[in-house]
Amino acid sequence: MQEKRYAFAAPRDFALAVCFILPQLVVTGLFFFYPAGQAVLGSFFMEDAFGLSKEFVGLENYRRLAESGEYLHSAWVSLVFSLSTVLLSMGLALVLAVTADQAIKGGKFYKSAVIIPYAVAPPLAGVLWMFLFNPSGGAMTRILAGLGVSWNHMLDGDQAMILIIIAASWKQISYNFLFFLAGLQAIPKSLIEAAAIDGAGFWRRFLGIVFPLLSPTTFFLLVVNTIYTLFETFGIVHAVTSGGPAQATSTLIYKVYNDGFVGLDFGGSSAQSVVLMIIVMALTFAQFHFVEKKVAYQ
Amino acid sequence: MAGIELRKVVKNFGKTQVIEGISQSVPDGTFLVIVGPSGCGKSTVLRLIAGLEEVTSGEIFIGERDVARLEPKDRDVAMVFQNYALYPHMSVRENICYGLKVRGLPKAEQERRLALAADMLGLSEYLDRSPRQLSGGQRQRVAMGRAIVREAAVFLFDEPLSNLDASLRNQMRVELRRLHERLGTTSIYVTHDQVEAMTLAQRIMVMNQGHVEQYGTPDELYLSPATVFTARFIGSPNMNMLRASLERGRLKLPGGTFLPPIPATDAAFTGRAGEILLGVRPEDLLPAGENAPETLRCRVELVEVLGADTLVHCALPNEAEGQEPIIARLEGSSRPGPGDVIHLGIRHGKAHLFDPVTKKRLAV
Ligand SMILES: Nc1ncnc2c1ncn2[C@@H]1O[C@H](COP(=O)(O)OP(=O)(O)O)[C@@H](O)[C@H]1O
Ligand SMILES: [Mg+2]
Predict the structure, then answer these.
(1) Neighbours of ion ligand 2 (CB under 5 A)
(2) Does residue B169 have its Cβ closer than 6 Å to ligand 1?
(3) Is any Cβ of chain B less than 8 angstroms from the Cβ of A198?
(4) What distance in angstroms lies between residue B148's CA and the mean position of ligand 2's atoms?
(5) B143-176 pLDDT, tens per residue?
(6) Topology of domain B243-362, per CATH?
(7) Would you say the ipTM is above 0.90?
(8) Which CATH superfamily is domain B4-233 in?
């Protein structure tokens, strides 16, 4: 995660550099800055119920958000969902990576097995989980029934939450695994050996040496995974629970969509997406600030 | 403190045998240097003793205990790594005390040992710095401090000076010697550098391709190398190795001259005839008068002036296939030029004879 900065020697080089990044700039402008600008603008206006007229309302949309019980509920749902998904996917990935780092025989097979989920397209993954947990006759549903758990995420809000957490974590485990494994392998073996001779057993070494040295990776993943759970999981929520039952899985990003495109409240929806945008900007800033400056040891 | 004894230690990596059954004992308090070319298994031996690798078979005694199956932490050894292996997220103080903290030593005792080691190594001012704020030499010292405070029975060093520049290396070598004189801890020091080995060691173990070529004091190795390998490996420039032959108890040199008769006392020579390897160190070649019968007549090819002495690279014509290279270390004032023909005699008693097949030493 180290960054190299190049100074351009001549204006000619600068022009060339611009040529190289221009396509990317155009794409970013068209698909990111333009809609983002629209959202910021839209958040200051309110439309009438039929979408015929627009009125400038200043911060009214934001004030309403702050007072809306539904919005606060959605924020809470998002918090539970994001925290659980991040902890579950990172925790499991770390355990798998540490195991893979130790494994000598069959290591290749093991690594491939953990990485495969990342190659499965998200909609497919969503469908897969839906089949497995289908309330009427899914394989997992039957296994759970055998264990005395009656599973129906269409009716039970907690179960719906558990299902989208599992579905969202599943793919992310592969991604996190790769980063953790690379991070572990970047730690010089001699450090672990020195600690072993110094008298530290496995856990002591892990907590005192390995985990602290892994912290740049951990922090990076923490940010990336949080952003993932806030945004990219829209598809999973949409496919698996549609925010239900009774808003139990209506995360912030899902609510942006629902209020905007189903509820047709563009002003409120825009204000919500601006709030999300600010959260992401803060996270990205923290990422650059801490990973680059504080957490790196080399 | 304790001595170390290896008994028939074998190590295989997969199907390759890397250590071919080493048996050797190191008396308590000895500074032993293991030296040999890269890849000969030096580090592996050290790591076997430390417990970082598991022996395939054999026993390793530290003091009275066979430690071959123990965890590294239970072997009472301390180790200094080539890359120092300092914990980058800990201060110098934490680095040095980590092993004590892990072992649950009382805080006061930790402080006492830390102060002692820091004083000994001149680290007292740097205790609160992080390793990345230190120079190479200082990091090296921290690594040694970490070993010293453990007060372990055995110190293990794996090429600890090879990442330092030449002058710092010389300085640290002297300090290591002093440290050992002061602490008297049994130490095993691995290096591929024979100069380092000669200057540091009380005992040297020369290794080659997974076995021990010779074990002895630096003098023993230098003055009577047991094999051609040791003879060539120890000493710089390398010992000259000439193909000679034995005829009626006399050594016939390449080029046709005979050396004085060899005393018939040595059983190895009686009845022996044919090819033999003659080793002569460059400093044991002396300029001789032209008409002396027992000299090597060679042509000078290159002259290296070192100041105190001069290294003369020559070609020695031999009967069979032309020439053999030979290097002589002559006095600084002696300056033959390329193309000159010079006559060299062998210093009395300094001819080393080896069997050309077994490569073992023949005479004492
Ligand atoms: N972990 C390992 N796996 C396989 N081969 C190894 C391993 N460690 C060392 N070797 C091999 O063992 C031989 C001796 O290595 P080493 O003890 O490191 O040599 P040295 O320290 O004398 O340079 C080398 O040929 C090396 O390739
Ligand atoms: Mg080595």
Answers:
(1) B 43
(2) no
(3) yes
(4) 22
(5) 999 999 999 999 999 999 988 888 888 888 888 9
(6) OB fold (Dihydrolipoamide Acetyltransferase, E2P) (2.40.50)
(7) no
(8) P-loop containing nucleotide triphosphate hydrolases (3.40.50.300)
